[in-house]
Amino acid sequence: xxxxxxxxxxxxxxxxxxxxxxxxxxxxxxxxxxxxxxxxxxxxxxxxxxxxxxxxxxxxxxxxxxxxxxxxxxxxxxxxxxxxxxxxxxxxxxxxxxxxxxxxxxxxxxxxxxxxxxxxxxxxxxxxxxxxxxxxxxxxxxxxxxxxxxxxxxxxxxxxxxxxxxxxxxxxxxxxxxxxxxxxxxxxxxxxxxxxxxxxxxxxxxxxxxxxxxxxxxxxxxxxxxxxxxxxxxxxxxxxxxxxxxxxxxxxxxxxxxxxxxxxxxxxxxxxxxxxxxxxxxxxxxxxxxxxxxxxxxxxxxxxxxxxxxx
Length: 311
Hints:
- InterPro entries: PhnD.
- One of its GO terms (cellular component) is ATP-binding cassette (ABC) transporter complex.
- This is Phosphonate ABC transporter phosphate-binding periplasmic component.
- One of its GO terms (biological process) is transmembrane transport.
- The strands form three sheets. The protein has a six-stranded mixed β-sheet with strand order 3-2-4-11-5-12, sandwiched between helices. Strands 8-7-9-6-10 form a five-stranded mixed β-sheet. A two-stranded antiparallel sheet has the order 1-13.
- It is built from eleven helices and 13 strands.
- α5 links the parallel β7 (156-159) and β8 (188-191).
- The model is unreliable at 1-19 (pLDDT under 50).
- It has two domains: 10-131 and 242-309, D-Maltodextrin-Binding Protein, domain 2 (3-Layer(aba) Sandwich), CATH 3.40.190; 134-240, D-Maltodextrin-Binding Protein, domain 2, CATH 3.40.190.10.
- The protein starts with 9 loop residues before the first strand and ends with a strand.
- α5 packs across α11.
- The protein has 311 residues and is an alpha/beta fold.
- The chain has helices at 58-64, 66-76, 88-96, 110-117, 165-179, 195-203, 214-222, 253-265, 272-277, 290-293, 295-303, and strands at 10-13, 47-51, 79-82, 102-105, 119-126, 134-140, 156-159, 188-191, 209-213, 232-240, 244-248, 284-287, 306-309.
């Protein structure tokens, strides 16, 4: 296992069960997320900082989220600024340090954000019928000679980062439990930093294969960043929850209420958000809870013997 870079938050392996909240937070309700602190410790910033989960080109998503952020500003009476993050660790550290107030954390990093940064997720994107989720796929290029999972032996396989569910944790558990393959023993590993990078790397034959979220692949194919003829899928997982959106736990209760209202009252019709995410069949924000909807992800973490230490 490689050490998580660029942050004071360390992802540690142990034989213990999934860790509880960091000692700086309290959970009196038992819902596994941090309580809003007493009034003296709540914050009410004049400018809200919003970050979307790391992608190859954050400027693209600053534009995609533009109309929503204007709506968020109208609903809260605050200035709102898009914060382009380069990796999951930096995003988590920013919220832990109080520099990030509203965010979308990817599936796998959500538990770390909850436990170490006081992130409180309350919504995800879903389709018109309320359905949501994505699958982890292991992809390769047509010239790799890889047709089955067993063909990964001796090959170069890209993961995204250690905090990513579909980019590392789920495929690690599945490759070990279902196929008896161990990273850096049965195949060589690399960390690309983002799903976009892994997908482009496979298409350009920099990697023999990669574990990715197929929702990202769908959007990249639709934008013609890569061609379908450059990509071949050899494995598809069960469905996982998508990016979790939520707030820093210590925002004032009134402000948290206004932020939630902004998500649930946003009209997607004709927006760039709709244009981008309708590629995945997503068209609305629906309520979720970390306790219920991230249960499968915590199970994967336990299977990988993952616990989190926050410092």
